[in-house]
Specification:
The chain is an alpha+beta fold and 393 residues long. The chain has a domain of 209 residues: MetI-like (MetI-like fold), CATH 1.10.3720. It contains 16 helices and 5 strands. The strands form 2 sheets. A 3-stranded antiparallel sheet has the order 1-2-3, with no helix packed on it. The protein has a two-stranded antiparallel ribbon with strand order 4-5. Strand 4 and strand 5 form a beta hairpin. Helix 3 crosses helix 16, helix 6 crosses helix 13 and helix 7 runs antiparallel to helix 10. The longest helix is centred in the middle third of the chain and has 37 residues.
């Protein structure tokens, strides 16, 4: 009806201009296949697409997956058994891997080592014997081991030739291969963080969730308890808790005790973050709707509130795991954490406590390299996961 059209007669039915044809959204705006794929994608798919754009995070995730996959077959990957001693090659320096000898392609090999004792300094001195070429064998038989303590085997990914040394990262004071011990140590150091973060997250989400959801006296009690725990200095507390463990405990018992200690001391920061988020989210309309429908408190927290700040939880987890790895490394380095025969990166670094040893045999500091790489990878992965958890930003 236009401005100049006459008014309808009194009592006459009013006309309308609504089309009776079926509504088709494509008739208003024609979507391209890419737009349609984007609009119809689920939140998980959107998160995955956004995560893939973070190249550093993807590379870090692949690196961590490789490390965790390697701990399943540490015995196979290590060229030597964990406790194999080469008494003729104590504090042997790292050997280089070569491909070409005298202008000919030989394949991966190492040169022989000659050792002698310097009577002036009473130290072993090693020289490379370029006339002896020792090819590296692959998928070979070498030192015997018990795979995961279940069955005996002797297959390795790569091995030295018989009666020839191959120490790619050198040896320690007992003549044990440093590379093999780093590979074995990853199994302990990498799992400490996973078990510890499970304990920490469970306590942080439960206690922080209760404090934030109920508030009042419950919140006050939880906050005072957190303040008391956070006021205690971390390192002396670690040392005190580690020192009270009986020396008669088995290495496995000590391992689980260390993980529990790390988990019990790392939940306070997460609990405060969960509490502050729940204090704001509990006032939302969808929480009231869930309460009116009779949902239990545990269901409201787990299904409605926690997913609202999942990005923060992911970022906290990727920061807490390397913190626990560093905690285990520090305790073991100080001699109050894991003890031999358990091997971790922290236990390996106890060899480098003496500055004279570090000055003469710097390769004993190499176990710190995987610690640094893993911590950096977790931080980069956390950045990517935090951004991907909220794909609509």
């Amino acid at each position: 009806m236009t401005a100049n059209s006459p008014l309808p007669a009194p009592g006459a039915p009013l006309g309308h201009y609504v089309s009776q044809e079926p509504f088709d959204a494509r008739s208003i705006e024609q979507l391209t296949p890419e737009q349609e794929r984007l609009y119809l994608a689920s939140q998980w798919r959107l998160s995955w697409w956004k995560f893939k754009k973070h190249k550093v995070a993807v590379i870090s995730g692949i690196f961590l997956l490789v490390i965790y996959a390697s701990i399943l077959i540490s015995e196979f990957l290590a060229p030597y058994n964990l406790n194999t001693r080469n008494t003729r090659y104590i504090f042997a320096p790292p050997q280089g891997v070569h491909l070409i000898h005298d202008g000919k392609f030989v394949g991966p090999f190492v040169y022989g080592l000659k050792s002698k004792v310097n009577l002036d300094t009473m130290q072993r001195e090693y020289t490379t014997n370029t006339r002896k070429v020792h090819p590296i064998r692959f998928f070979c038989r070498g030192d015997k081991y018990k795979f995961w303590g279940i069955f005996n085997a002797d297959r390795h990914l790569f091995c030295p030739t018989k009666r020839a040394p191959m120490f790619l990262l050198g040896t320690d004071r007992l003549g044990r291969d440093v590379l093999s011990r780093i590979i074995y140590g990853a199994r302990i150091s990498m799992t400490v963080g996973l078990i510890g973060i499970t304990i920490s997250f469970s306590l942080g989400i439960i206690i922080g969730g209760i404090a934030g959801y109920y508030g009042g006296l419950t919140d006050m009690i939880v906050q005072r308890m957190i303040e008391v725990l956070q006021s205690l200095p971390a390192i002396p507390l670690w040392l005190a808790l580690a020192a009270i463990m009986p020396v008669t405990w088995s290495p496995i018992a000590v391992y689980f005790a260390i993980t529990i200690i790390l988990g019990l001391l790392d939940w306070t920061g997460l609990a405060r973050a969960v509490r502050s988020k729940l204090l704001s989210l509990r006032e939302e309309d969808y929480v009231l709707a869930a309460q009116l429908m009779g949902a239990k408190t545990s269901r409201i927290i787990a299904r409605h509130l926690v997913p609202g700040f999942m990005s923060h939880l992911i970022a906290t987890a990727t920061i807490s795991i390397p913190t626990m790895i560093l905690g285990e490394t520090a305790l073991s380095f100080l001699g109050l954490g894991l003890r031999p025969p358990i091997t971790s990166w922290g236990v390996l670094l106890t060899e480098a406590q003496n500055i004279n040893v570090v000055a003469l045999y710097p390769w004993l500091m190499l176990p710190v390299v995987p610690v640094i790489l893993v911590i950096l990878a977790y931080n980069f992965l956390g950045d990517g996961l935090r951004d991907a958890a909220d794909p609509y930003k």
